[in-house]
Write a structure and sequence with these properties.
By secondary structure, this protein is mostly helical. It contains 7 helices and no strands.
């Protein structure tokens, strides 16, 4: 590979990183519960993308490709640990180079993760994942269907049934809270 082709590929990768990094990091974080592991997963996916794909523009659905790659990497991560590792807020490892605003943002992300995961863990895994992708990652039903290679109607029904179960759970919790 000549140097100019390598520079062009690197510029393409920089553009992809700038466009998708935050979204896919959030996606990875909400699947791992660990800031550092999510960073590692995202970095590994970008490196693999650079090494394995000759021309990034040749990927017909780059966003779908990235989400699928992150999803697969997170599944591998989950299989490699016997239990989910969630960083306690007081023990969260935050890189030194992060500024104060980023530290606060990280802590809020961990709090949000814990709150949402607490709600979603009562759902079947397929329903919880569709809700995560739709609500947290802002993917369309069509994008989610493409990601899992299932019909859009299946995605919509998983979403609806999951949301219905969450609403029921929240209503029951409100009744208990108001009854006290």
């Amino acid at each position: 590979m000549d140097k100019s082709h390598g520079r062009d590929r690197l510029k393409e990768l920089e553009h992809v990183i700038a466009e998708y990094q935050d979204q896919i990091f959030r996606f990875a974080f909400f699947r791992t519960g660990c800031f550092a592991d999510a960073q590692d997963i995202v970095q590994d996916v970008f490196i693999k993308l650079y090494r394995d794909v000759g021309c990034l523009h040749a990927v017909s659905n780059l966003k779908g490709y990235l989400f699928r790659s992150i999803s697969n990497a997170c599944a591998d991560y989950q299989r490699s640990w016997s239990r989910k590792r969630i960083e306690p807020l007081d023990q969260a490892v935050i890189p030194l180079e992060m500024q104060e605003g980023a530290v606060a943002s990280h802590l809020l992300l961990v709090e949000e993760y814990n709150r949402i995961e607490g709600l979603l863990e009562s759902l079947p895994a397929e329903q919880a994942e569709v809700i995560r992708l739709k609500v947290l990652d802002n993917l369309s039903f069509v994008e989610i269907a493409a990601l899992f290679e299932i019909p859009v109607t299946t995605v919509k029904s998983r979403f609806k049934y999951g949301i219905d179960k969450l609403k029921t759970k929240i209503e029951k919790a409100k009744e208990v809270h108001h009854g006290l």
